[in-house]
Write a structure and sequence with these properties.
Helix content is 20%, strand content 37%. With 299 residues, the chain is of the alpha/beta class. The strands form 2 sheets. Strands 1, 2, 3, 4, 5, 6, 7, 9, 10, 14 and 17 form an 11-stranded mixed beta sheet that branches. Strands 13-12-11-8-15-16 form a 6-stranded antiparallel beta sheet, with no helix packed on it. Helix 1 (23-35) packs across helix 5.
């Protein structure tokens, strides 16, 4: 979808840290927006890199509310954090890769000062990505709701015996799983942790969710693709499990807890260049061969 003009022209710069080797790029990004007439806000973590520039600092928890667009400066992990802040407020996120893999990011550091303002001023497109949600129920009370763009991971908190997970889908018993853990992923997250344990690659536009076990005791326990309208309920009869969203700090769970996993009501709105090609990203990042990449055509 073509990106509509962003109004007001207020950009929030989001990052977890300002590494010394990234400071020149961070200043370039901020200065390019200032030169293009944007009001720029930044999280306090960026102060060491941006000192002296005409911008304001806003706590990370509030920067999405005060901005019209978030600019994520880092890697995929930074983008995931920015998306979780922005999605409930229906704010778009443009991600600049200053990290390593940059699987989901829109821009690299090359010609950053030239390209960044242009993507926000008519040369970008917006992709909506579905997210997943976990509700934690304890003693029949809902005590936590958390969303993730990539995945929700249920794992053992320490080495030892396999976890026992009793699973139901839409109120109907599915199975009792024994495994090291479980991954509940969005289509975007299918190429993250789920991929590394044998899950399928999903087109990001597919209206489904992915359930993948980590090291299941039974080899017949295969990844499951569920309609996005489904609700997965997990009962945890034993202690020793923890839940994390998009790789964030895990939450320790208790025996008797229940998790309800479903599609989040919020979508992440990500900005890319008009020539962005998700399949090209998969080829390049996953090392797939094909025409133009050294692969041979099969007759």
């Amino acid at each position: 979808m073509t990106l509509k003009a962003i109004r007001p022209k207020i950009a929030g710069l989001f990052s977890y840290q300002a590494k010394p080797e990234q400071r020149a790029r961070l200043r370039e990004a901020a200065q390019s927006l200032l030169d293009a007439g944007w009001k720029v806000l930044a999280v306090p973590a960026l102060r060491p890199a941006l000192s002296g520039l005409s911008l304001s600092y806003v706590p990370a928890a509030g920067i999405a509310r005060r901005s019209a667009v978030l600019v994520s400066l880092g890697g995929d992990g930074t983008l995931l954090g920015a998306a979780r802040l922005a999605a409930p407020l229906k704010k778009p996120v443009l991600s600049v890769n200053l990290g390593g893999l940059g699987f989901m990011t829109a821009l690299g550091p090359e010609r950053l000062g030239l390209r960044l303002p242009k993507l926000l001023q008519g040369e970008g497109v917006e992709e909506r990505r579905s997210m997943v949600r976990a509700e934690l129920w304890r003693a029949r009370r809902k005590v936590l709701v958390i969303d993730a763009l990539n995945d929700l991971v249920l794992a053992r908190s320490s080495a030892g015996h396999l976890a026992r997970l009793q699973a139901s889908v839409d109120g109907r018993f599915l199975a009792e799983f024994r495994a090291d853990g479980l991954i509940f992923a969005s289509p975007t997250g299918s190429t993250a942790y789920a991929l590394s344990v044998g899950g399928p690659v999903l087109d990001t536009r597919t209206p489904v969710m992915l359930l993948t076990l980590v090291s299941p005791h039974t080899l017949s326990n295969r990844p499951l693709v569920l309609p996005e309208s489904s609700r997965l309920e997990l009962s945890l009869p034993e202690a020793g499990m923890q839940l994390s969203a998009d790789g964030d700090e895990p939450l320790r769970l208790r025996a008797g807890d229940k998790l309800r996993l479903c599609r989040s009501p919020h979508d992440a709105k990500l900005i890319f260049a008009k020539d962005h090609d998700n399949w090209a990203v998969l080829r390049n990042k996953l090392g797939w061969q094909g025409l133009g990449t050294g692969g041979a055509r099969r007759a």
